[in-house]
Specification:
2 domains, mainly alpha, Homeodomain-like_sf, Tet_transcr_reg_TetR-rel_C_sf, DNA-binding, Arc Repressor Mutant, subunit A, 10 helices, Tetracycline Repressor, domain 2
């Protein structure tokens, strides 16, 4: 009786496939940010990556899949999507013991993310004005950001340090507006702020806006 055929697994082949995917993602990012999503083709991406068009399809997918993969890579800092709850900085935020420490941890992580994400995010926003697939992805990512910020607001609320006159939705909406790539590009790109200054600004603004002020001495 013949045995069950063994699956052949080659670590070297897996490494080559991962390297090819990484090269395709870099090429797609450069194309979409540089020329725009609408003006870029899969052939352009293949040429930039130094691979065949069929290789782009096999390693990532068609053009909408490329845009999604580039965006998820920019968010996670890896070649694959990483759910928010599994990201290292989210664990650090959740482990911080005070609202101020949580805000500081998140702001420091945000500037690292925005440096790679902002150009991709704006390329997606521009593509969404004319391309239905991009519009659907834009709506999905926008709502996902809002949902993640509601989780962040709830985490801050659990410290007991937030103002009572602000709801979690209020806090989430304010953070959502200030952690957007548009705000980053206004101050870092437009006004030349350093990453450190931008992070410090967010910490200062959010602690002033969200946290209870100490009462008079003796209270």
């Amino acid at each position: 009786m013949a045995g069950t055929p063994r699956r052949y697994h080659s670590p070297r082949r897996a490494e080559q496939a991962a390297a090819t995917r990484a090269a395709v993602l870099v090429a797609a990012r450069d194309a979409f940010v540089g020329a725009g999503y609408a003006a870029s083709t899969v052939a352009d991406v293949a040429r930039r990556a130094g691979v065949a068009v069929d290789t782009v399809y096999a390693s990532v997918g068609r053009k909408p899949a490329l845009l999604r993969a580039v965006l998820e890579s920019a968010i996670s800092g890896t070649d694959d999507a990483v759910p928010a709850q599994d990201r290292d900085y989210v664990a650090r935020v959740q482990a911080a013991s005070s609202a101020t420490a949580k805000i500081e941890t998140y702001a420091r992580a945000l500037v690292v993310i925005q440096a790679r994400l902002a150009p991709v995010f704006l390329a997606l926003r521009d593509a969404a004005t004319t391309d239905p697939d991009s519009a659907a992805l834009w709506a999905e990512i926008t709502e996902r950001r809002a949902r993640n910020m509601r989780d962040f607001a709830a985490d801050l609320r659990a410290t007991g340090e937030l103002r009572d006159d602000l709801s979690d939705d209020d806090v989430a909406d304010i953070v959502w507006s200030m952690n957007g790539p548009e705000y980053w590009l206004l101050l870092v790109g437009g006004r030349g702020w350093s990453h450190e200054r931008f992070a410090g600004h967010l910490v200062d603004a959010w602690t002033r806006l969200f946290l209870r002020r100490p009462g008079p001495a003796g209270d």
